Predict the 3D structure of the following.
Amino acid sequence: MSDASSQANPAAEPAGQVIDVTLVVPVGHASAKVEELIAAWGERLDDLGLVWEAILVYDGVRGPAWEAGLALQASSGNR
């Protein structure tokens, strides 16, 4: 018998890859430097050979940070 909570969600994994790291980033201000943060973390994780994804959490924030998040999503293949 398998435990559903211990199984990965294949729909959430890019191209059948197992996600090594999930970045959960709370965005609390419209001027947050979302692109810079994700680029810096992504570069380090890529250097380590890890498969990663980023989840940006906007709590009512809009403006430039929101637009940057949308641009990242469009350019990343939903990574």
